[in-house]
């Protein structure tokens, strides 16, 4: 009987092997930290040193690389577990910029003004084209339009079309800053992502269709009637990546409603909540809430903070805070900013009078 009990208590060879594997040290393929295997998982079919990962490291990888993160790039097997779309990081946070620009012109833009402009480089501020620069881009648009209507050589027409396309993105532009990525620019300054609220260009057909689909989705989840979703051409960058913006009535949110990576844009003089996010998260955040305004955004503009400071010093842009009214009036927004807001701008732009506004409008 004693011998039978000892045999029953003795571990088998298979059990010893299992225990040894459980205590085996492994290395996470992402953070390269060695851990005992119970703290690691094998999320795909890879073998060897690439087999194990920390669950939290895998989630971080999937959040930051959402468009290419559904499967392992080595064995091509789908990750287990998969990250839910609502937990993915907004693509805007991964935007980087590699600018080339001259240093800020300190003669036209003294240090005190540079500091004031830098303080405005945050979400909820506007980057407004100066009247001097608007006169130049307006003339570019007009010249390109005249060239396209006349009998010109194919090469001249091609050059005119490119010039017109670029100038229309910037002409009398009023760009709302929606995100600032700290030190995400290759010049080691901040990457600024902004969307144009005043562009006169027509959206692509796909953007208009996306706006209609967004309206239908919001109608299903929001409290009350949802107005027309406006489509805006917001800049020349990332035009294939969808982005939406909502203005919501303030309300207490549950933890589930706050889930997801929405960019919050603080606007002065209002309690309304302005958020920017991808479509699936926008509809999630709108559930049970009153939607005041909704936008489908096509593209964006990107600067590094040092690049923008340089362009401000060269009379191209001014900076001021946004107001709630800016989301309602596209056509007069640029004029309103310069006549009523006093944007921070280079010295030579001071005293913008009626003649400068007429020049900026006359060529457009």
Strand segment count: 12
Q: Could you list the spans in which at least 5 consecutive residues all have pLDDT below 50?
A: 1-22
- Helicity range of the residues? 25-40%
Q: CATH top level of the largest domain? A: Alpha Beta
Following the backbone from N to C, one meets helices and strands in this order, namely HHEEHHEHHEEHEEEEHEEHEHH
Subcellular location: Membrane
InterPro entries: Znf_RING-CH (IPR011016), Znf_RING/FYVE/PHD (IPR013083)
Domain RING-CH-type: 20-82
Protein name: RING-CH-type domain-containing protein
List the helices and strands and how they pair.
Blueprint lengths: L1 H8 L3 H10 L2 E3 L6 E3 L18 H10 L46 H9 L5 E5 L1 H19 L4 H17 L3 E8 L9 E6 L8 H17 L8 E4 L9 E6 L14 E3 L7 E5 L1 H7 L5 E8 L2 E4 H9 L3 E5 L11 H9 L12 H9 L2
Parallel strand pairs: 6-10
Antiparallel strand pairs: 1-2, 3-4, 3-12, 4-5, 5-11, 7-9, 7-10, 8-9
Helix pairs in contact: 5-6, 5-11, 7-8
Pfam families: RINGv
Main location: membrane
Membrane topology: Multi-pass membrane protein
Question: What labels would you give this structure?
Answer:
single chain; 364 residues; alpha+beta; Herpes Virus-1; VC0467-like; 2 domains; 5-stranded antiparallel β-sheet; 5-stranded mixed β-sheet; 12 strands; 34% helix; 16% strand; disordered N terminus
């Amino acid at each position: 009987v004693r011998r039978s009990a000892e045999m029953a208590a003795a571990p088998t060879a298979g059990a010893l092997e299992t225990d040894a594997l459980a205590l085996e040290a492994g290395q996470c393929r992402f953070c390269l930290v060695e851990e005992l295997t119970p703290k690691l998982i094998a999320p795909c079919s890879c073998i060897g040193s690439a087999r194990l990962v920390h669950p939290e490291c895998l989630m971080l990888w999937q959040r930051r690389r959402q468009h290419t993160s559904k499967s392992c790039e080595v064995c091509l097997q789908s990750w287990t577990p998969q990250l839910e779309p609502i937990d993915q990081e907004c693509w805007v946070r991964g935007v980087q910029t590699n600018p080339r620009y001259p240093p800020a012109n300190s003669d036209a833009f003294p240090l005190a003004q540079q500091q004031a402009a830098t303080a405005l480089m945050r979400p909820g501020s506007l980057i407004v084209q100066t009247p001097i620069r608007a006169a130049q881009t307006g003339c570019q648009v007009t010249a390109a339009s005249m060239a396209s209507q006349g009998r010109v050589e194919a090469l001249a027409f091609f050059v005119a079309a490119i010039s017109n396309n670029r100038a229309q993105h910037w002409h009398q532009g009023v760009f709302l800053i929606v995100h600032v990525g700290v030190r995400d620019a290759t010049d080691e300054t901040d990457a600024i992502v902004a969307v144009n609220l005043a562009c006169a260009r027509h959206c692509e057909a796909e953007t208009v269709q996306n706006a209609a689909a967004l309206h239908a989705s919001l109608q299903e989840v929001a409290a009350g009637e949802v107005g027309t979703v406006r489509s805006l051409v917001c800049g020349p960058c990332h035009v294939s990546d969808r982005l939406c913006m909502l203005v919501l009535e303030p309300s207490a949110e549950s933890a589930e409603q706050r889930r997801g990576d929405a960019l919050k844009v603080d606007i002065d003089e209002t309690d309304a909540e302005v958020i920017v996010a991808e479509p699936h998260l926008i509809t999630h955040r709108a559930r049970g809430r009153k939607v005041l305004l909704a936008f489908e955004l096509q593209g964006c503009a990107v600067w590094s903070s040092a690049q923008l400071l340089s362009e401000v010093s060269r009379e191209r842009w001014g900076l001021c805070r946004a107001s709630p009214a800016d989301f309602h009036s596209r056509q007069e927004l640029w004029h309103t900013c310069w006549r009523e807001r006093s944007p921070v701008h280079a010295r030579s732009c001071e005293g913008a009078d009626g003649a400068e506004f007429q020049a900026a409008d006359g060529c457009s």
